[in-house]
Design goal:
With 203 residues, this protein is of the alpha/beta class. It is built from 9 helices and 5 strands; from the N terminus they run ααβαβαβαααααββ. The chain has one domain: Carbonic anhydrase (Beta-carbonic Anhydrase, Chain A). Helices cover 49% and strands 15% of the residues. Strands 2-1-3-4-5 form a 5-stranded mixed beta sheet, sandwiched between helices. α5 crosses α7 (132-147) and α8 crosses α9 (173-181). It is globular, with a radius of gyration of 17 Å. Keywords: Lyase, Metal-binding, Zinc.
């Protein structure tokens, strides 16, 4: 199977899994004893997912996947640091994933906090804004407000996914090279907690 066919098949599997989940028809595949035992010697996921640590956004459940299917990296606000970059590089170089999904979500607390800081909310601590979380998410919020002074949280959430993807490609020669060669694709997505559906932002 060539890279593009594998990428398309992998993404189709995830989207179909999300459809099942959103419609209340989750199959919960690969969660049995046989699968667990088959993975003792190693893992071979096709996709890596960088998503928010929010307890309402677990990728395996959202995409109706199971053991060994996804290489998960989760940080508050799906922010990128060296550990995230090196984890994704490992997934590409050693696990040979063909797809990276960067997934934000509806009602993101990090986005809400960044917007409060930019709005001058006196109840939000400046020290928090200077942390990596607020620095990265705050940058996305500033971009959103520069484009539209009435930007909504949903606008910031979508822009933050785009900014996160840009950071991955800019800061990692490994990721950049894999994307340019066509061996790896990056999908931008936003999970809607309200209806369980994954909104595709870029592919």
């Amino acid at each position: 199977m060539d890279a593009q066919t594998r990428i398309a098949a992998t993404w189709s599997r995830l989207i179909e899994g999300n459809r099942r989940f959103a419609e209340g028809e989750a199959q919960r595949p690969h969660q049995d004893r046989t699968t667990r035992e088959s993975l003792v010697g190693g893992q071979h996921p096709d996709a890596a997912v960088l998503s928010c640590s929010d307890s309402r956004v677990p990728p395996e459940i959202v995409f109706d996947q199971g053991l060994g299917d996804l290489f998960d990296i989760r940080t508050a606000g799906e922010v990128v640091d060296d550990a995230v970059l090196e984890s994704l590089e490992y997934a590409i170089q050693h696990l040979h994933v063909c797809l990276i999904v960067v997934m934000g979500h509806e009602n993101c607390g990090a986005v809400a906090a960044a917007m409060k800081v930019l709005a001058g909310d006196e109840n939000t601590e400046d020290e928090g804004f200077r942390s990596i979380l607020m620095r990265e998410v705050g940058a996305s919020a500033r971009i959103a407000f520069a484009a539209d002074d009435e930007a909504t949280a949903e606008d910031v959430e979508r822009i933050h996914v785009a900014q996160t993807i840009e950071a991955l490609v800019t800061d990692s020669p490994v990721i950049r090279g894999a994307v340019r060669s066509g061996e790896v694709a990056i999908v931008g997505a936003r999970y809607k907690i309200s209806d369980g559906k994954v909104e595709v932002l870029s592919f």
